[in-house]
Amino acid sequence: MRANSPSEPPVWPLYLLRKLLKSDFLEELEGDLYEVYQDSLEEVSAKRAHRRYIWDCLKLIRPTLLATPKFSHRLNSFIMLKINIKIALRIFNKNRTYTAINVLGLASALTISLLILQYVRFELSYEAYNPNAEKLIRITTDYMDGDVIFEQDCETYPPLGPLIKDEFSEVEEFARAYHIDQFTLKVGDQFFRESKMYGADASFFSMFNYPFLQGNQETAFQAPYELVLTQSQAVKLFGTEDVLNRTIEIPSDSATFKVVGIIKDSPENTHLKFSMLMSYPTLKTLYGETDDNWGGNNTFTYYQLSDRSQYPRFLANLEKLNERLTAEEFLPSENIIAQPMEDIHLYSHKSFEAETNGNANTVYFMLGVAILIILIALFNYINLSTSKALDRANEIGIRKVNGSSRLQLIGQLYTESVLVFLFAGILSVALIALFIDYFAELAQLSESWHFLGDLKFWGLFMGILTISVLISGGIPAKVISSFKPMEVLKGKFGHSASGNRLRQALVVVQFGITIFLLVQTLTVNQQLNFMRGKDLGLTGENVIVVNAPDDWTLDKFKAFKGELLQNPLFEKVALSEAAPGMPAHQMGTTTGINPADALEEHNNNMYLYFIDHDFVDVMDLQLVAGTDFIDGNNDNKVIVNQEALRIWNLPNTDAAVGKKLNVGKGQWSITGVIKDFHQFSPKDPLVPMIFIYDHGDASLINIKAVGDNPQQQVAALETAFSSYFPNTPFNFFFLDQEFDKQYQQDVRFQQVFGLLSVLAIFIACLGLFGLASFTITKRSKEIGVRKVLGASVQQIILLVSSQFMKLVGVAALIALP
Fold first, then answer.
1. What is the Cα–Cα distance from 578 to 610, expressed in whole angstroms?
2. Taking a C-beta distance cutoff of 8 angstroms, is the pair 215, 234 a contact?
3. Each residue of 668-700: b (16+ CB within 10 Å) or e?
4. CA distance 515 to 761
5. How far apart, in whole angstroms, are the C-alpha atoms of residue 615 and residue 674?
6. Which whole-number Å values give the CA distances from 463 to 110, 414, 426, 435, 457, in the listed order?
7. Contacts of 291 (CB under 8 A, 6+ apart)
C-alpha cells in the first residue's frame, strides 16, 4: 500500500474494507473510490477530500457486500443446535411415557453400573497407595509330600529375611511382620484388649510407605520394647495423638513399652492392616525369637526389588535357594514360593492369610454383569426408538422434501439421544448420592470414598455416557434418517422386516441376559442356604466364648468355673485355644506326624487343637471311637478327627484307638476319635486335627448357656468375670454368630447379585412395557374391531402378549442351559 501524500487518500479506510468486504468486489471498488477521491481534490481542499473519502468507504460497509465472517459457521451450528434442542424437547413432551421409560431405564442401569465399577476399582486398587508396591514381593511356603503340594502357607521362617537379602543382589531391602495374638494392654489405670499388633523390622515403614508423623523414623525399632501406634489407636488408648515417649504396659509379660512413633492408619485397600507395631528386637528379647529359627514359620516376609524387571531373576535365584535348603535339610519337604504383593488380595487364598482376601473371578464377574445391565438398557432404548420410527416418518419425509440433509437429520436424532442420556445421567447421580452409603457398606468400600470429589469416577461417568450415546443413538439415527420421502408422503412406508427382526433379536438378547442373571441369583441363594443348613458336626447355639485373661492361674479358673456352674443360666464350661469359626492362626500346625507302625511316612500338615476334658461336651462333638480326655493326667494322649485317620490311611476308627504316633523323638497315643466337624466354612475342605489336652494356657473360655435369655447370661458372665479378673477387659462373642461371619462374603455377594438381577428384570420389563404399549396403540383399531366381533379381554391380552411371550421363551431356552 502506498504511503499517504497530499494527493493520496488515507490508508486505514481501504485496509478496513479489505478486511470486511467480499474479495470479489474489492478491486472494482478500490478503483472507483480512488477516482472519486482525485475528483474531490480538484474541487475542495485535501482535508475535505480525505473526509469525503472516509465517508464513501464507510458507506460501503453494508450486509450485501460483507464477507462471511470466520465464526459464522460456529454461529450457524449454535443456532441449529438450539433448534434441535427445541424440537427434541417438544418430542419428549409429546411422548412423556416413552421418554420416562427411556430415562428411568437408562438411569437405573447407569446407577448400578457405576456403583459396581466403584467396587471393581476398589478391589483392583489394593496396595496402590504404596509407590513401592510393584517392587514388593512376598514369599510363602508350600508343604510338599514328595512332588505333591498338599497345603500352601503364606507365612515363612524368620531366617529367610536376612538370608535372601544378603545373597540376592536384586533385593534392596526386606521386612518381616509377625502377628501377635490377643493380649491385654495397660495404659495408666485402664485396660484394653488388642488383636491387631505385629512385630516388624525397622524397614517396614519405608517399604510399606508409612512415614512417621511423630518420632524419628531413622532411629526407631533398633531396640526392644518400642511401639509405633496408628493415629486412631493413639486416640483410642490415650485420647490424643500427642503420645510420643509415653508408655504402655503388657501385664502378662511384665513388660513396659515406649511409644516411639505415630503413623497414619492402615488404608482400606491393603492386605496387611494393623493398629500398632512392636519392634522386631522385642520378639527376640521377650519371646525368644531367633534369626536361625528353622522350626517355626509364623512370619510374613517381604522383599523390595531394585526394579520390577528383576522379578524373573529373583524367581531363578529362589529356585536355586530351594534346592540348597533342601539338600542341607533346613527345608527337607517345603518349597519357598514368591508372589508379587499386588496379587495378594485377589489371587492369594493360602492358609494363615492376614485377612480374608477377595476373589478375582468375583470382581471380573461383577464387572461383566455391569456391562450386561448397561447393554439391556441400551437395547431398550434402541428398541423403543426404532419402534417409534413410523411415528417420525411423516416428520422426516417433510424435512427431507424441504431440503434437510441426512447429516442434519442425524444431528437432530443424536441431539435427542444426548438429551435423554443427559437426563438419565442427572437422575443417576441423584440415585448414587441416595444409595452410596448403603452400597458402600454392602460392598465394603472404603468409608473415606465419595464420588463427588473423585475425578476418576467422573471420567468413567462421562466415558460411559459418551459411548452409550454413540452406540444407542447411532442405530435409530441411521434407521430413521434413511426413510425415503416419496414413499412416506405417499403413505407407502411401513416397518421393514429387517427392522422387526432387529427388535425381536434385541428383546431375546436382553431377556436372555436377564434370565441368566436370575438363574445365577437363585443358584447363589440355594448354595448359601445349603451351606447354612449343612450339618457342621457340632452345635454352636447357646455357646458364649470369652477371651481368657493373660495372667490367670488354673486355680483361679477352676474357682471361676465353679461359680458359673452354680448359676442355673450355665450348664458347662471348657477351655480351648481355638473355637469353630475362628481363623487358622488360633491353632498350631506341624508336619511329620505319622503312626508308629506306618509302612510309609508322609509329611502332611496337621492342625493342633488345644482343649480340655469338657470341650467335646460343650461343643456337642461326637466321639465315634475311644474316650474323651479325663479331668486329670492326659500326658501323651491325643484325640484325632476322622480326616486325620484318612490322611494316615487308617479306615477303621476303632482300630485306631491306642495306636502310637511318632512326634519328633517322642510318641503320642490316640485315646479317641472325633467325628469330623467344620472348623471353617463348608466351602473349605476338612482339615486333619489332633486334639491335645490343655493344662491351663488356653486363650478361650467356652460356656454352654441354658435357656434363651442372652442379655441376662452375658450380664451374669461379666459380673463373675470382673470379680475374678478385674484387670482384664471382658470380651466375648456368641459362637454361632462368629461362625456365621464366614458366610458374610457370600451373603454380600448374594445381596449385591440379587439387587443386580432385580434391576435387570426391572429395566427389561420397562422396555417390554414400552414396546407393548406402542404395539397396543398401533393395533387399537384392530383390537376395537375384534371386541365388536365378540373377542373377550382375555383373548385380546393373549393376542397382544403372545408375540412377546414367544420371544421371552426363546430367551429362556438360550439362557437356562
1. 7
2. no
3. bebbbbbebbbbbbbeeebbbbbbbbbeeebbb
4. 8
5. 12
6. 11, 17, 15, 22, 10
7. 158, 159, 162, 284
Q: How many CB atoms lie within 10 A of CB 574?
A: 24
Contact residues for 646 (Cβ-Cβ < 8 A; gap 6+): 688
Q: Is the pLDDT of residue 55 over 90?
A: no
Over residues 389-441, the pLDDT tens digits come to 556 666 666 666 666 666 776 777 778 888 888 999 999 999 888 888 877 77
Using a 10 angstrom Cβ sphere, with 0-12 exposed, 13-18 middle and 19 or more buried, the burial of residue 242 is exposed
Beta strands 299-305 and 594-595, pairing class? unpaired
What pLDDT band is residue 217 in, cutting at 50, 70 and 90? very high
Neighbour count for residue 13 (Cβ, 10 Å):
19
- Supply 815's cell numbers: 439362557
Angle formed at CA 730 by CA 724 and CA 733, multiple of 5 degrees: 125
All three cell numbers of 696, joined, read 491351663
Provide the grid cell at 371.
Answer: 456391562
The string of pLDDT tens digits covering residues 316-339 is 999 999 999 998 888 888 899 999
Please give the Cα distance from 528 to 5 (Å, whole number).
Answer: 100
CB of 145 closer than 8 Å to CB of 310: no
Q: What mean pLDDT is reported for the chain?
A: 83
Write down the pTM of the prediction.
0.78
In this structure, what are the phi and psi dihedrals at residue 388, rounded to the nearest 5 degrees? Answer: -85, 0
pLDDT surpassing 80 at residue 579: yes
Cβ atoms 334, 191 nearer than 8 A = no
Q: What does the alpha-carbon distance between residue 601 and residue 453 come to, in Å, rounded to a whole number?
A: 61
State the alpha helices, DSSP H only, in 779-792: 780-788
Residue-wise pLDDT tens digits, 467-501 = 888 887 776 666 665 555 555 455 544 455 555 66
Give the model's pLDDT for residue 480.
Answer: 62
The amino acid that residue 330 corresponds to is F
Burial of 801 (0-12, 13-18, 19+ CB in 10 A): middle
CB neighbours of residue 48 within 10 Å: 12
Cα–Cα distance between 146 and 365 in angstroms, integer? Answer: 37
- Helix (H) / strand (E) element for 638: namely strand 637-641
Strand pairing of 197-200 and 171-180?
Answer: antiparallel
